[in-house]
Amino acid sequence: MRYSAFSVLKNALTGHKGWKPVWREPEPKAEYDVIIVGGGGHGLSTAYYLAKEFGLANVAVIEKGYLGSGNIGRNTTIIRSNYMLPGNERFYELSMKLWEGLEQDFNYNAMVSQRGVINLYHSDGQRDAYARRGNAMRLEGVDAELLDRKALEKLCPISILTMVVSPFRGIAAKRGGTARHDAVAWGYARGADMRGVDIIQNCEVTGFVIEAGVVKGVETSKGTIRAKKVGVAAAGNTTRVMDKAGLRLPIESHVLQAFVTEGLKPIIDTVITFGVGHFYISQSDKGGLVFGGDLDGYNSYAQRGDLAMVEHVCEAGMAMVPMIGRARVLRSWGGIMDMSMDRSPIIDKTPVDGLYLNCGWCYGGFKATPASGMCFAHLIARDAPHPVATELRLDRFETGRVIDETGRGAQPTCTEASYANSLPSLW
Amino acid sequence: MRIPCPHCGERDHAEFVYRGDATVVRPDPDASGAARAFHEFVHLRTNPAGLHKEHWYHEGGAALDCGRAQHRYT
Lengths: 427, 74
Fold this sequence. Notes:
A: alpha/beta, eight-stranded mixed beta sheet, 11 helices, B: mainly beta, three-stranded antiparallel beta sheet, two-stranded antiparallel ribbon, 5 strands, about 35% strand, elongated
């Protein structure tokens, strides 16, 4: 499906009856060069880059539900590159650069909006942590700016913030912002499909075909599909899929909630985070305030959260922006986070030859979508990690080379008060 | 969600601290292969989408570990 001014006009005048599906719904072939398990943002971007950058078009993406039914459709759309440790920094900066050229690259409107991400700080300890992070970012050539009240005033409507959270200072990553999450999945799906990738929906992987330690394909609800290589990008369901290959992983599944209010006139034109209260907020182009907070705090596969966290998030929101108390929450939802034991991702080979793993996205998978696909495609096509993803190893927990941005150790649920005052644990 | 504490009875889960999988056992540090065993103990998870036995520490009450099995899927 291609679009032009002419086709838009013609369909507008003829009742929009001429539009066709943007991607095919093929039956699976008997064999592919590469199978990607998981038709979410990361799986689709992997397939797209495999076809576009690495010349592998005999690829299938296999999705248990419908395309983009997981976290790509359940996040708060924030994109940013503000990581401190080298293992993450280069990776997320590549992602930011890919975001900047994404719409031209896949010729689809993903509504990428570099409106800036501002992290407010409220204590000396938090300021020092942010300054350290900002300096680390600048050393890697990533922009970061420590803001005093005056500078903050220019970027963010602080008159809406409460005095409780003064002294109104923060750190800005001006190239960060938001993107239209569903359109990211659709753009990648369309681009992959146009290049010959088969996107197979409503097809659950029930097992792997492994012969003498080498993966040869997958068993699915639509029969066995053979493949030379298999990549798994299953986010919150990673351990359920990899169980079938006999692998135990450093991953726990947790639910993270998000909320959106009714549409309002424009009041917040950046993304603002409030580390003390564990809260972040932005305003969508439709006018809804999109906000969220922390993990619910215990293992879960339910794509909805519990009321205690609803209360906590709303309290934190009221502490930061009291005026949102007047807005009505339209919807809340939950996504399943694949929490790794250092809260950094894994893009690596597995002990099974030909089986590759992409997981551990924690509460930050959306912003990583382009780089995750690029690096995973590189790994699968070349059998070697992309230069920016060399540290995102599966064995780093055993070797001690963890990438632990917040120094919390192997405790995905260790959140709240102990870190709120010192570390930007939720950006 | 309410959790039964053996000392205080059924209490709101906000009074508890979550400590994860209750079925794992700390390995013997003197045994051979202890490094590997500790890696598995600290880092690797079974993460079932189903029955999950959990430790909930009643910090806001009796300061006891209260075991609880929860079905983790829907």
